[in-house]
């Protein structure tokens, strides 16, 4: 069994926790880790290689070849960096090969406070019914960058989240306005000290109403109370406005999660 404590990045440590709960195959090869999700081969970060931070000084071609050997049928490439010190100065080999460098902010909280723009007009509750989960798919599609081609992928990912929720590993919460799901997120744990947020999403037509912050707050109280977590973890895009919402409810920046990815070539 993989010892998650040996993973230095809290972002990837909790990513691996979630993938393990979902049933992904995680293999520690000694110097690196591979994660494979056979049920969802188009989930890039369910099918990736995690290399040590020290490998950033190696030739990029070697690690890219290692990914290809591990995932010979993959149309994408996804390589994570198990480090905490931030974005590398010059990952030129990866960039020259067409991979995109992503640097996300890993944030933590041991308590949550009410957001400054709390919205009490919506109903906040866990997703339970078939209609709730159907609406969750529709909301995920509406928030996707390319909704026309995202439905199958969204259905598979929502199905994974539903399984985790129904197995008692956490919950997906929704903000409902007149019975319509306007915002959602997931919060899950393996029963240890950490609970990880997933997919904080607000419908484009319902943004700037305080729904996301209020939902994060309600879910945080659930995580610290019902799940018994000592620490909450959320990963944010440092250039997107949502990071200010997370800070407002009590999250602080801890580390930077570094990854490289290349999308499948357009047909």
Descriptive account of the structure:
With 267 residues, this protein is α+β, with helices and mostly antiparallel strands. The protein folds into 2 domains: 4-104 and 257-262; 123-249, Aminopeptidase, CATH 3.40.630.30. Helices cover 30% and strands 28% of the residues. The protein has 7 helices and 11 strands. The protein has helices spanning 10-22, 60-70, 92-96, 130-143, 151-166, 211-225, 242-248; strands at residues 25-28, 33-36, 48-52, 77-82, 100-109, 123-126, 170-177, 180-188, 194-202, 231-236, 252-262. It has an 11-stranded mixed β-sheet, sandwiched between helices. Strand 9, helix 6 (211-225) and strand 10 form a beta-alpha-beta unit. Helix 4 (130-143) packs across helix 5. It is globular, with a radius of gyration of 18 Å. The protein starts with 9 loop residues before the first helix and ends in a 5-residue tail after the last strand.
Topology of helices and strands:
Elements: H1 10-22, E1 25-28, E2 33-36, E3 48-52, H2 60-70, E4 77-82, H3 92-96, E5 100-109, E6 123-126, H4 130-143, H5 151-166, E7 170-177, E8 180-188, E9 194-202, H6 211-225, E10 231-236, H7 242-248, E11 252-262
Parallel strand pairs: 3-4, 9-10
Antiparallel strand pairs: 1-2, 2-3, 4-11, 5-10, 5-11, 6-7, 7-8, 8-9
